[in-house]
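Entry 12.
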Amino acid sequence: DRLQGRAATGPASPDKPADSILVHPDVRRMLLTARAYNEGGRALATWTALLLDREHDHPDPAVREEASELMALLTPVVKAFLTDNGYETATLCQQVLGGHGYISEWGMDQFVRDARINMIYEGTNGIQALDLLGRKVLMDGGTKFGRFAALVQAFLEENKNRPDLAEFTAPLSKLLADTVALTRELGAKAKADPNEVGAAAVPYLRITGHLCFAWLWARMAALAIGRDDAFHTAKIATARFYFAWLLPEVEQRFREARAGAPSLMAMPADAF
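Predicted 3D structure (tokens):
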């Protein structure tokens, strides 16, 4: 409801002293980031909860085994990727409120403090990243990761003849192939220098988290395309924002993961 300034394209509400802050692109960027991360996070958390049910209660032992391996792979991703995103979301929403974001009566300052501790609880997110790359991916030769990659590839195969979905499936396909290649590279580098795992762990977790989100947002878009009600229209718009604005983070993360340990370990300890 906040009125501040005028739209760059001209007054959106000429009868009022100013326009809603929603006319400003940067405000929309912050709110859409929160929406894309929140809805993507709910989708990932719900899917992993389904895996937990399958692991414990499915009558087929093969399904239970697959669910167990996927749960093991994704647990550090759910913990670290979602809490990283949660803190970013909280600070962005505080920023939307401007100076009022620091006033306790609005509550956003408390959300920011509460969100920050989540990145430390139950193993810091750096430790979760080490667990993902070192134990869950490389220790078993990529078997668990391969199971997840197969699910993503199956979705791509099922939708390869849907041109209306290409804006989502094309970048998802590239990300999957790039992540598989990076995983192999890191496995080889880790054999020569164990510090390579620690150096690449955090960017690798961010890449894996985005692979999960890109897959889930593509799945949501596949169901929403062709439906013109407000709910599904918003889903498609949010999916497009995610692929255009948030997924490109992986380009930097791939460079970081390949940068290697030497530049991190070269500084003498007494120089810190």
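Annotation: The mean pLDDT is 93. The longest helix spans residues 61-96.
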